[in-house]
Amino acid sequence: MEKGKTYVGRIIVTEECTASVIGSGELPVLATPVLVALMERAAMLVVADELPDGSTTVGGSIDVKHLKPSAIGAEVVATATLTEVNGRRLGFHVVAMEGDVIVGEAEHQRFVVDKERFMSKLSQKEK
To answer: How far apart are CA 60 and CA 55, in angstroms?
Structure first.
């Protein structure tokens, strides 16, 4: 995995992804949790095609600034850039734009995990 690799994800703001519908606010604008999901998905897809079979990445932390509201019908484009590779830990910088306006930025860490081993930890807790 090489630093500098990017992935661009897009959404069109619909009523279903507004703060008033999701419950994270009262206004019909893009909900911050939806922005975060867009950013995380873009980061996940930066490296998805380079992972070993049976592996994925999981989010570890995200420091998000939601800077501007986006109305229903707006297209929001998130560009995730791989900034750090440290063993299983990956760092990303993500910028979300509506046209030429930055609506959000984030620093995000993900970890490479073996899917089966990761999920087996959940079943161990149930015992």
So the answer is: 16
What confidence tier does 122 reach under pLDDT thresholds 50, 70, 90? Answer: confident
Tell me the H-state helices in the chain: 19-22, 32-47, 115-126
- Which pTM does this prediction carry? 0.93
- Among residues 11, 10, 37, the alpha carbon closest in space to that of 22 is found at 37
Residues pairing with 84 in the sheet:
91
Comparing C-alpha atoms, which of 48, 46, 16 is closest to residue 34?
16
Residue 85 exposed, middle or buried by CB count within 10 Å (0-12, 13-18, 19+): middle
- For residue 108, CA distances in Å to 7, 26, 59 come to 14, 27, 8
CA distance 74 to 9: 14
